[in-house]
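Q: Study each token:
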Amino acid sequence: MNLDIRNKIGTVGPPVCGNRVRVGEDGELEVTGLGVFSRYHNNPEATAEAFTADGWFRTGDIGSIDADGWVRITGRKKELIVTAGGKNVSPNILEDRLRGHPLVSQVLVIGDGEPFISALVTLDKEMLPQWLANHNLPEMDVTTAAAHPQVLAALDRAVARTNRAVSRAESIRTYRVLTSDFTEANGLLTPSLKVKRSLVMETYADAIAEIYSTTKKGPQE
């Protein structure tokens, strides 16, 4: 944890006293110490799955540890995307950065088993009118805005800024703007407002297929 007098923005802090953290070969954070349980009761299979051979607990988080021992969490192991070229990509970094643009409501980064990373993007209908006014553009609905050249140009710039945080192999090469948002009402968000990845991919399977069918011969690693 971070302390008031000793902290680093963007990290969760160093391990608390009596605990240790390390990064496994696959980038997963592993922990051991006083705050970690030793085993599952009468469930050796679950214990073997949750712990390494030398007894460190697999957290399921992907992250890093800096030279001072501060821990940074960048994603969840189960959400890692593995491209056709074998590159492990954590979608959370890209999604969080791109979601910070005022035009953007939700983002789903995709590319598992594909030659490159892409994204599905939805527009924030509440922020859209103000953004249009700020850019001297006429009023328009989300469907019209999703195809408007100036809106797309703004999103292009947002994607370019987002990609600065990752390597070329991890960067978003293309995206599609959807005309409907991910919401709890339509079942695409959980009650805690997390995107239901598998359901979104199933719902928009045609859009995803179109991305990769029309750009298979595009940039690859």
User: Anything to note?
Assistant: The first strand starts at residue 19 and ends at 23. The chain has two domains: 19-77, 80-214.
